[in-house]
Amino acid sequence: MALNGDIHWGCILRVDVAQPIKQEGWKYLLKEANNFNFDGEIFGLGFRMEDYLRDIGFRGSEAGLEADFVESGVPSRVVEQVNWLEHVEVKPFNEDIKPFGAYKLKQSDVFTVPTMTDELLTKGYQCDWPPYIGKIGS
User: Whole-prediction pTM value?
Assistant: First the structure.
């Protein structure tokens, strides 16, 4: 699942990191996880918590492009700060839903994204984003 970029998170965190993360940190993050802010690869956190993330073992901006989290903001600037995140334009097939941006891990094979009304759209069936695959079954 990609994360809807129109929801204003404080930061985006990748979870597949090489260094150890404190167990109490994982417990806290998993308690905060739900179907619309965690896709198994990246986390959209609704608040800024850089100091806490560093304290439990994640690397921040001091790691440059290899940082494990980035503050959300202007999408083009966010994805330039790290080498693992991309922002795609989601084009719903239902004209009643306006196109919107989404964050996803680069080279990820995610195929769903939530709308602002918590409806899950599936790539190829209800929406599309780069690389485009078109509408399946039409």
Answer: 0.88
